[in-house]
Batch of 2 targets.
Target 1
Amino acid sequence: MSKVRERLRANLGRVRERIASACAAAGRSPESVRLIAVTKYAQWPWVEALIELGVKDLGESRPQQLERRAPLAAGRVTWHLIGHLQRNKVRKVLPIADWIHSVDSVRLLDRIELIAAELHVRPRVLLEVNVSGEASKDGLSPHELLEQADRWRATRHADLCGLMTMAPVVASSSQARPYFDRLVELRDRLRQLWDDPDALPELSMGMSNDFDAAIAAGATCIRIGSALFEGLEEVNGGQ
Ligand SMILES: *Cc1c(COP(=O)(O)O)cnc(C)c1O
């Protein structure tokens, strides 16, 4: 087995163990958490090896890289766009991305609706919320999210299935927990406003440093990059 594959197998094993213990502590089934491997900094052969190890969901943050890579994994994985999407890229992204985690305006959602109808596709979309209020982060403010509640609910061509957030960089996983709890509260508030207890089942939250806390708070999708690919640069020469 190549060194790259060996290292990836060990990293993936550790991530799966962390998922299992966070789920056990929260009384959840590990199958209730979707592991999305974030491949934005990974070389393609590493991604290939990860697919061979059984990973089925891949996330890219840039539409251009998604476009380049999607044909290489055609039919083998579910692609998630997790980074900022400009309206003029929607037409290229919709045929490839099964999920879009980063809808952050009414204008973008309108565009997705229009093109999805035209192409006869039904992407899963999530609204990205800037829970921490940091200026460096994309996403709707909690106020904008609630103010536009009727507009989100009127989504027809896309499957508006949840909310996404990124916690600030903090010293420990437990310090990220309040941001995840806040996303759950906002989801519950929309459920109340819509009088629909089953709305927005997906919560995309948790990255390498904080996914344990996100799972405890109720994450259904975690987006993991560095914990899967750490140490790969070092072993790459010896593959
Ligand atoms: C890069 C990225 C991740 C993965 O971050 P890691 O800390 O490497 O796990 C998750 N979500 C988004 C939106 C990202 O851009």
Note: Residues 38, 40, 61, 82-83, 166, 207-209, 223-227 surround pyridoxal-5'-phosphate (CB under 6 Å).
Target 2
Amino acid sequence: MQFIDLKSQYVLLKESIDSNIRNVLEHGQYIMGPEVFELEKNLAEYVSTKHCVSCSSGTDALVMALLAYGVGEGDVVVTTPFTFIATAEAIKFVGAEPLFVDIDMDTFNLSPTTLERTLDEIANGKLGIHSGVCSQVSDIKAIISVDLFGLPADAAAINRIAKKYNLTVIEDAAQGFGGAINSVKSGGLSDIGCTSFFPAKPLGGYGDGGAIFTNSDEVADALKSIRVHGQGSDKYQNVRLGLTGRLDTIQAAVLLEKLRIFDGELVKRQNVAESYTQRLSTLAGIETPRIPDGYVSAWAQYTLMATDEEHRNKIMSYLKEKGIPAAIYYPIPLNEQKVFSGLGYGASDFQVSSRASRRVFSLPMHPYLKEQEIEEICKFIEEV
Ligand SMILES: *Cc1c(COP(=O)(O)O)cnc(C)c1O
């Protein structure tokens, strides 16, 4: 059994994907070929934003979004400590400092209540645990909300709080792409949305890739410039610092085919999640994922909580013994990572994230998981 099965999907799409790749090899426009623009058009339509700017990875999407809004040295960006390293890494990479705000246990996403309280306190000169990253509220320029495990963060609340403090909201939809809140798609829930096409993400390519979504002509122009070394109107005119941030034409050719079946795959993921929840929600000591009303998860991961670390380890080792691949996302909150030790946060500063990191574990999740496999996985968990 595989944690994420990419082979079944390839078998299904083999003919069209092979033919698309062959087309690219024949026309030879490996960089910014026609497939890239066609994909951007389809993705913008899918998310219902005016622009989609494709790029080299989800991490680069975040870096480019921060650069497009002029976030850099001396600035502070708020985010969650319970996420993949790339979210906070991108903030550091542009020279800014990540300011962590704890999550809600129900959703694993940034807590709007804690976010507002933290910003209010900082505005009142109470820096508390944040004194290592921030000296005044005006240092804070943006919030990166993360759609963890595929469930969109509470965009309405986060956008409202951001407005109060004049902050840009960047949605990290690397895991959330395909999800929605009240029919508004992930990637389009805030000022700017970033996603990843890393193979294991809900919409994955056969290599690295990413995309950025915006309704602003100005931001889209800045992103297109940043994508190619900060070029101006002419190729050899450089107006800002940028990077080599393009999506390969071959990846676009692959993603075009995968996007066609994406909505069907989301339905299959939803069915897998429902089947897991139906079998596991009645087990004592196991908490199944909670999806708030009006929310659609892209089910990047199906993540459960055990009662404590010992219970989680018992389940993990039993599943391993039975040949079931399970994983822990994420075992260490970012404030406890060595790379961020300079921020001055303590190990117990974000209690909810700490507790979550000790209790969570994720089960195999992909559209091609069979009912019989789900049944077997759930039976092993029940045995523990
Ligand atoms: C995967 C991921 C990223 C980074 O995407 P890459 O394409 O691997 O660079 C960023 N944020 C989150 C939450 C992710 O899961």
Note: The pocket of pyridoxal-5'-phosphate is lined by residues 57-59, 83-84, 86-87, 146, 172, 174-175, 196, 198, 208, 210 (CB under 6 Å).
